[in-house]
Write a structure and sequence with these properties.
single chain; Beta-Lactamase; 3 domains; 15 strands; disordered N terminus
């Protein structure tokens, strides 16, 4: 007869006087069906240092996870020949625990097997260890891929100088990247994880419409939040921000739970836009409104005067003998005279009065809520101020000059801007014909 094969020892093998065989069978069955890999090994040392280990028992999951077969009774140096040299750190952990050390749990990349392992190891008896493990290579690769994507996103945000925000609506918590704060003059440590801090930074005049745009998206009325508004910089200045965001998660009832977005500092662009708009409305030399924008503003004031029954007056002024000034002193001095007329007019009239350069040396002033007599008085003050002005020269006596002014006032609801301008132009012609440096007026009845 052939003797039965000797069963390989198992980590559940009891001492001779241990419990009933039924308990050992249950434990053996558990090991056989466990999804975690299990190995029971005897550690070997050379000069007190762990050098190799012998496989005494492995469960089926061990072979499934590692791809190693028929390892019982073999040394690891036979099964994975390079392991003792390439993975000495693993041997050190096993050797330390096998000397009756405390259990240890760790994650390690085993070079000789090109796999990541999550391992728990304990010592059942001196110079032996049981290792319970999972191969987690796919998880680690996924984590690495996520980390790489997060790094790429961070580089994109930093390279584009974008501020990023992530609002956990349910928890009331907001995460932001450092750039979000930097564009407002704050360090990352000064940022709070609240929506209230954002709201506090928004310019008070823009706060209501900013919240309204966000809630339109949160409550499903709009697909995306995209808004330009002002925010307060730490130094007290104003920064223009382009805020773009969408709801990224909703619960089973459709309620928004997470919203993410970016901030872009568009201050320089807004300044440029405002400057282009100003240039489109303003005479480049004198800084007053150009003819086109003056007429637009005048039409608006005329409509308001008709609506409320308020008086309205128009002034037209022309620099006397301006051609002679250019011929005698040159166009540079002529330009200085034009600027002086504009500056003295601004200083004489009210902020609500509208000043424009119609062309050449001709200017017009619209005086809201001003009747004929008040307009004549204002025109006379301006005429006298300009007559007393002096333009210094680098050589010779200062340049003096004067203006003639024509005044007209609205006389009926049928009067329009062209009527007021024509009437003021006739009065200006009369002032020039009467000797210049004077004011003449025509009301609506003339």
């Amino acid at each position: 007869m052939t003797a039965p094969a000797e069963r390989a020892p198992s980590p559940t093998d009891p001492a001779p006087d241990a419990g009933p065989p039924e308990a050992r069978a249950v434990l053996d069955g558990l090991l056989e069906h466990l999804l975690n890999g299990v190995s029971y090994c005897r550690m070997e040392y050379v000069d007190g240092q762990p050098s190799d280990f012998l496989f005494l028992y492995t469960n089926p999951a061990f072979h499934t996870q590692t791809g190693l077969a028929d390892v019982r009774g073999k040394h690891v140096s036979e099964v994975v020949p390079t392991l003792p040299q390439t993975d000495s750190a693993l041997l050190e952990v096993f050797g330390r625990v096998a000397r009756s050390g405390p259990p240890e749990t760790f994650v390690m990349f085993v070079k000789s097997m090109a796999q990541w392992f999550s391992v728990s190891v304990y010592c059942p008896q001196p110079e032996h260890f049981v290792a319970l493990f999972d191969v987690i290579t796919e998880r680690k690769q996924a984590e690495a891929a996520l980390e790489e994507r997060a790094k790429q996103l961070r580089f994109v945000l930093e390279g584009a100088e974008l501020g990023f925000w992530d609002w956990d609506i349910a928890a009331g918590k907001v995460e932001r990247n450092p750039q979000w704060g930097h564009m407002l003059g704050y360090t990352f440590d000064e940022l709070e994880h609240t929506a209230q801090q954002w709201s506090d930074f928004v310019h008070p005049n823009d706060r209501e419409r900013a919240w309204a745009s966000i809630f339109d998206v949160v409550e499903g009325r709009s697909k995306a939040h995209k808004l330009e508004y002002r925010m307060l910089h730490k130094d007290g200045s104003i920064r223009w921000i382009l805020d773009q965001a969408e709801v990224m998660q909703r619960d089973e009832h459709g309620k928004a739970t997470r919203m993410c977005g970016t901030h872009t500092d568009i201050t320089e662009r807004k300044i440029l836009e405002e400057e282009l708009l100003r240039q489109a409305h303003v005479d480049y030399l004198t800084g007053v409104y150009n003819r086109r924008h003056f007429m637009e503003r005048a039409e608006h004031e005329l409509s308001r005067a008709h609506r409320y029954g308020n008086p309205l007056s128009m002034l037209m002024l022309d620099i006397d003998h301006f051609k002679l000034i250019n011929d005698r002193y040159g166009h540079k001095v002529g330009d200085t005279v034009l600027k002086a007329v504009a500056d003295l007019s601004h200083a004489t009239f009210r902020d609500v009065d509208i000043l424009g350069r119609l062309g050449g040396e001709e200017f017009a002033v619209l005086l809201p809520e001003t009747n004929q007599q008040a307009a004549l008085d204002a025109a006379e003050r301006l005429r006298e101020t300009i007559a007393n002005a002096r333009i210094p020269l680098t050589e010779g006596l200062p340049v003096t000059f004067s203006v003639s002014i024509g005044v007209s006032s609205m006389g009926s609801p049928e009067d329009n801007i062209d009527v007021l301008l024509n009437r003021a132009d006739r009065a200006l012609y009369e002032a020039k014909g009467g000797g210049r440096n004077r004011v003449c007026g025509k009301d609506g009845e003339e």
